Amino acid sequence: MTHFRIREAAALVGVSNDTVRRWVTDGHLESSTDASGRQVVSGRSLAARAIALAPSVDDDAVVRRSARNRFTGIVTAIEISGLIAQVELQCGPNRVVSLMTSEAAVDLNLEVGSRATAVVKATMVIIETEQR
């Protein structure tokens, strides 16, 4: 089974080390010690906690959509060049970059510092993992 040190677990779900330790104390995460004697949490319990804390999809939306991958964050950069605009968002620890028409960027009133949501519908998603 996969285990993560407190620091790694905190980085994966975007919380502080103290929050992960509190979750262990409160029984929300399974923990043990690794070969070095450091406290680790199980990957399975961390995944369950992440799902439980994830914000639900906006059920009040007027429009129904098939895309389930939504990343809400803050616009950190906008570069408009001719007909194309490149918009960067920082969504928690994730950087999302979108290419769109300049007209769309203007119509959305995008500016650095504004809140935006990237909705992703991909036919191919590549998953990477570390070699063990």
Quickly list its features.
single chain; 132 residues; alpha+beta; Multidrug-efflux Transporter Regulator, Chain: A, Domain 2; OB fold (Dihydrolipoamide Acetyltransferase, E2P); 2 domains; 4-stranded antiparallel sheet; 3-stranded antiparallel sheet; 4 helices; 26% helix; 34% strand
Which secondary-structure class do the elements indicate?
A: alpha+beta
* CATH-defined superfamily of the largest domain: RNA polymerase II/Efflux pump adaptor protein, barrel-sandwich hybrid domain
- What is the CATH topology of the largest domain? OB fold (Dihydrolipoamide Acetyltransferase, E2P)
In whole angstroms, the N-to-C terminal distance is: 12 Å
- Mean pLDDT over all positions: 87
The biggest sheet amounts to: 4 strands, antiparallel
Strand content: 25-35%
Shape: elongated
Helix content class? 25-40%
CATH architecture of the largest domain: Beta Barrel
Task: Provide the domain count.
Answer: 2
CATH class membership of the largest domain: Mainly Beta
Low-confidence stretches at least 5 residues in length (pLDDT < 50)? none
| Helix count, DSSP H or I runs of 4 or more residues | 4
Q: How many strands appear in the DSSP assignment?
A: 7
Evaluate the radius of gyration. 19 Å
Q: Which H/E pattern describes the elements?
A: EHHEEHEEEHE
Question: Main sheet: which strands, in order across?
Answer: 6-5-4-7
GO biological process, one term: molybdate ion transport
GO molecular function: DNA binding
Protein name: TOBE domain-containing protein
Pfam family, one: TOBE
